[in-house]
Design brief:
By secondary structure, the protein is mainly β. It has a single domain, classed as Phosphoribosyl-AMP cyclohydrolase (Ubiquitin-like (UB roll), Roll). It is about 10% helix and about 40% strand. It contains 1 helix and 7 strands, in the order βββαββββ. The strands form 2 sheets. Strands 1, 2, 3, 6 and 7 form a 5-stranded mixed sheet that branches. It has a two-stranded antiparallel ribbon with strand order 4-5. β1 and β2 form a beta hairpin.
Length: about 120
């Protein structure tokens, strides 16, 4: 499959914070582990400012709708994500970001105290 490379204008959509207050315009982001093509680490939101910071730093920066601010992934845990590449969907309204995890990924810790390697560690029955 050939991947098209181009500059596309991302479509950031109006959103609400978890408490119902107005959030900045955001875009949905799927973070996948580089080299696996399908291992989803987690899904999050990114504002324009978060996207610009991510591009500037090479580390994932997101928008937290619960805290109403930028979320510098790994700022407190050390579990940051190095960006390898970006793909935008056909509607330009969501991103797939390939990353290399440094340390863990999920903020929920395993019983041994280490981070999970993905936020999708619970099977629904």
């Amino acid at each position: 499959m050939k991947i098209q490379k181009m500059n596309k204008k991302l479509k950031f959509s109006p959103a609400l914070n978890r408490d119902g207050t107005k959030a900045p315009r955001i875009i949905d982001v799927v973070l996948v582990k580089f080299g696996t093509r399908s291992q989803v680490l987690f899904i999050a939101s990114m504002s324009r400012q978060a996207f610009k910071e991510t591009k500037r730093t090479g580390k994932v920066v997101l928008y937290s709708r619960s805290r109403k601010c930028l979320w510098y992934k790994g700022a407190t845990s050390g579990d940051w994500l190095k960006v390898v590449g970006y793909k935008v969907n056909c509607n330009s309204d969501s991103l797939l970001i390939s990353v290399i995890p440094v340390k863990g990924v999920c903020h929920v810790k395993r019983p041994c105290g280490k981070s999970w390697h993905t936020c999708f560690f619970t099977e629904l029955i």
